[in-house]
Amino acid sequence: MHILGISAYYHDSAAALISDGTIIAAAQEERFTRKKHDARFPGNAISYCLKEAGISISQVDHVVFYDKPLIKFERLLETYLSYAPRGFRSFVAAMPIWLKEKLFLKTTLKRELSAIGNIDINELPSLLFTAHHESHAASAFYPSPFEKSAVLCLDGVGEWATTSVWLGDGNTLTPQWEIDFPHSLGLLYSAFTYYAGFKVNSGEYKLMGLAPYGEPKYVDLILDHLLDLKDDGTFRLDMSYFNYATGLTMTGEKLHKLFGGKPRKPESELTQKEMDIARSIQAVTEEIVLRLARTVKKELDVDYLCMAGGVALNCVANGRILREGPFKDIWIQPAAGDAGGALGAAMSVWYSYLDKPREADNSSDKMRGSYLGKRFSNTEITNFLDNTDAVYKQIEDSELMPQLAKLLDSENVIGWFNGHMEFGPRALGGRSIIGDPRSPKMQSVMNLKIKYRESFRPFAPAIKAERVSEWFELDRRSPYMLLVAPVKKEKQLPMTEQQEQMFGVDKLNIPRSEIPAVTHVDYSARIQTIHKDTNARFYDLIDQFEQLTDCPILINTSFNVRGEPIVNTPEDAYRCFMRTEMDYLVMENILLAKTDQPLQEKDESWKQEFELD
């Protein structure tokens, strides 16, 4: 039985296909269209999933959408009515698209699906709808390694819910309680993302990365004025400070006055104020999440926790739950945002709607390392390169891996295009840019010359799974780069008194450990453990690097430039390689050196093609 899950029309459209309960394929639409956070119908992603399974749309048994649009429309109307006459401009802006498209989503979906399969609408499979947070909860629990666990979903807003708690047991998910719009931890964090001058729904990572450069000066201001936080982690926001319920911006004049000025203009200079703002809202977020986790443990009396929703991508908070929380272990859906809702919706149909049995495996999850996207063969890659007049060598792994290890040891930056593309926002060794973490200059080089992004942004270490506890304060798997942990004390480099007194981005150039390129200014790192059973080639590369250097770690960052989605095809990878100052590109067994490529006029028009966020 084939079930196709779809998320679309808000942000991060995606499709996922499961067959007899097994995840076959999943991908975000942005990877195909090259439009970051593409919200349109995921026609390309659906076509990929069907092709990967070797079926047509007519062979799908159920199609399921991750959201209930009529309930969401109800929430919009009730919100506008309760705030009237405020929000009239926003109401006028929102209604045309609802009345034209979103309110009649069933018809829209059927039309789009029939176009994909070129079949009559009446021949389409049954169309189902799950609730937004049910999709999140299903994406977190059903693929997890736990037979029974609590499930905590935290995001901006679904239909009404912004925070929800579930009990997962076998093949059932039972809702416990929820916090509803407009009281939202996700929207609170996004409001400060906006206030700090970053783009909502994509700049939250930047705010989290900026936090260690600041001091928590505004924590009391936030807790005293913006929200009423209870001991159990539940909260209510004072909406007089915010504008997102009915307005066209996230924050209002009252908040601006409280924090001493209007939001920072995008792309303008970052000041210590933004760093302190970032640190403060991060501290508040962590406190709320920790309180919620303790409450959930007390109420449900289970040993394990699963998480999904956009806030579950806050890997600093996740690390604190693991270290300080009451659970034996936690598992976070790697595609925790809206894209993962497509997978959750499909799994919800299989287990909840169809009541199929579920068996958990405590040793591993069912996500296949999240390598669920398209894979390209050496032949497909060379066919493209031959048509591009690119210069390359095809090398077997036995020779290629030691050669790449030597190149990395010489501080070269390499584009790594390997196997199936990742599902979710993180590059996990499928579409990655890699480098030597021991190099003090590598963070700045990769940020400014490769990624074209802010210099303060940290990079993640990819480490052989069995060596993680030797380098970091972490004693378990972290395959999806969703946990932050401190670097081991014995690997850290102490700072001088003068260095201790430094503030802001001046901290950036101080080496903090033996692996400075992946050690953040607070001695933390966002860790990915690499496993031979899910990504053998990436594991082998790191193993070769370790044999050469005694370091079982590589820098792993996403294969893209700022404002552009992670690369999908060989063409995407080669274009990104030629537009940046990467030294080498390896696609499967194909190796390209930048110095060997035909001279091309530097093309920077792409910087205008994408909205820089």
UniProtKB/TrEMBL annotation:
<dbReference type="InterPro" id="IPR031730">
    <property type="entry name" value="Carbam_trans_C"/>
</dbReference>
<dbReference type="Pfam" id="PF16861">
    <property type="entry name" value="Carbam_trans_C"/>
</dbReference>
<dbReference type="InterPro" id="IPR038152">
    <property type="entry name" value="Carbam_trans_C_sf"/>
</dbReference>
<comment type="similarity">
    <text>Belongs to the NodU/CmcH family.</text>
</comment>
<dbReference type="InterPro" id="IPR051338">
    <property type="entry name" value="NodU/CmcH_Carbamoyltrnsfr"/>
</dbReference>
<dbReference type="InterPro" id="IPR003696">
    <property type="entry name" value="Carbtransf_dom"/>
</dbReference>
<dbReference type="GO" id="GO:0003824">
    <property type="term" value="F:catalytic activity"/>
</dbReference>
<dbReference type="InterPro" id="IPR043129">
    <property type="entry name" value="ATPase_NBD"/>
</dbReference>
<dbReference type="Pfam" id="PF02543">
    <property type="entry name" value="Carbam_trans_N"/>
</dbReference>
<protein>
    <recommendedName>
        <fullName>Carbamoyltransferase</fullName>
    </recommendedName>
</protein>
<feature type="domain" description="Carbamoyltransferase C-terminal">
    <location>
        <begin position="405"/>
        <end position="594"/>
    </location>
</feature>
<feature type="domain" description="Carbamoyltransferase">
    <location>
        <begin position="2"/>
        <end position="347"/>
    </location>
</feature>
